[in-house]
Structures are given as C-alpha cells and as structure tokens.
C-alpha cells in the first residue's frame, strides 16, 4: 500500500505541481488510507517521481529543469549576499514546469533579505516554516517570478534561515544525495547537465 501511495503521490507531484506532504496525504485519501503509518517516506516518493518522469516526461522534463535552474541561478546571483542555497526538486533533478523553486537564505539579520527585496521593488508574501532546531518558526517569503524559457510565472519560496544553520546545510540524506547546493555547486551541476544531458543528479 505504501508503494501505491508513493506512485499516486508522484503523479500528483508531476502533473499538478504539488509538494510531497500534501501529495502523499491526497494520494492516501484517494486510496482509502488515512493512517500516518501508511504514508511512504519522501525518499520513496522521490524515487516514484523519478520513475514517473522517465516514463511520461522524458522528452520535456530536462529542458524544463534547465529553465528552472537557470531562473534559480539568476535569483541566487541577485541575493548572493545572503548565501543562497537551492534545495527541493530543482536541486534534486526532479523538477518540472509546475514545480516551485526553493531557496534557503542564511542571514546575519533575518530581516535583511526582506529589506533587500523591498529595495529591489519585489512584491512578496510572508509565511513561516518549522525551525530545523525546534525554535521559533522560520520566515518564508514567497513570490512569483517570470521565466522566459517556460513562458510562465514560477513560484519562489525563500526560507530565511539563521547563519548558524549554514554549518549543516550540505549534509547528505540517507541515500547520499545532497539536500541543497550553493551558487557554485549549481553552476557546476548546470555545466555537467549541458555536457551530458542524460546524466542523473545525485
């Protein structure tokens, strides 16, 4: 049943642009399962997303991923003073045109990123995320950015993290894949993709 939920969630992630958590819960409900124990882990969902993309989106997804990474790169350059790191599907290589971009900003002053966006004339909304260390919630700024390559707007989520959190930012997950990458790492990954479009991200 967990595998069935993962497969259904993967379809929702790719076709509707849903995040993993909501996709898993919606998939479970559609299959008549509501217990938390029935829900697969994010690694299982990501594996199912990769399989779904390879079967149904192999001809379109690489270009969409490249467009999203290009947009992420431009924003990371704009916000370079805040030590931006790309995470989520665009970093992991599973993003499609419906995916949002997730950037972690590591700031000495958590309000400084907001001030910079205001100075740049960027409209944004403010939400929150649970703190990785169990403290106060982390501010999350959301905005829409035009992506010429996709001829569409893309949602960006900017998590405003404390500078101390940067020390654990590059820890790999249980599969050995990195959870995020800084500006230099993204440039290298994009260069590798350009040289070998069929190479898989790790």
Count up the helices: 7
Flag low-confidence runs.
none
Mean pLDDT: 92
| Shape verdict | globular
**What characterizes the major β-sheet?**
6 strands, mixed
Give the proportion of residues in helices. Answer: 40-55%
What is the CATH top level name of the largest domain? Answer: Alpha Beta
Q: What is the architecture of the largest domain at the second tier of CATH?
A: 2-Layer Sandwich
Indicate the radius of gyration in whole angstroms. 17 Å
N- to C-terminal distance: 27 Å
Helices and strands, in N-to-C order?
HHHHEHEHEEEEH
User: How many strands?
Assistant: 6
Strand order of the largest sheet: 3-4-5-2-1-6
How many structural domains does the protein architecture include?
Answer: 2
Q: What percent of residues are in strands?
A: 15-25%
Secondary structure category: alpha+beta
CATH topology of the largest domain: Beta Polymerase, domain 2
What does the model show?
By secondary structure, the chain is of the alpha+beta class. The chain folds into two domains: 2-56, no CATH class; 61-195, Beta Polymerase, domain 2, CATH 3.30.460. The protein has helices spanning 2-16, 20-30, 42-56, 61-78, 88-92, 112-119, 183-195; strands at residues 85-87, 101-107, 125-129, 138-147, 152-162, 180-182. Strands 3-4-5-2-1-6 form a six-stranded mixed sheet. A hairpin with a 4-residue loop joins strand 4 and strand 5 (152-162). Helix 1 packs across helix 2 (20-30), helix 1 packs across helix 3 and helix 4 runs antiparallel to helix 7 (183-195). The longest helix has 18 residues, at 61-78. It is globular, with a radius of gyration of 17 Å. The mean pLDDT is 92.
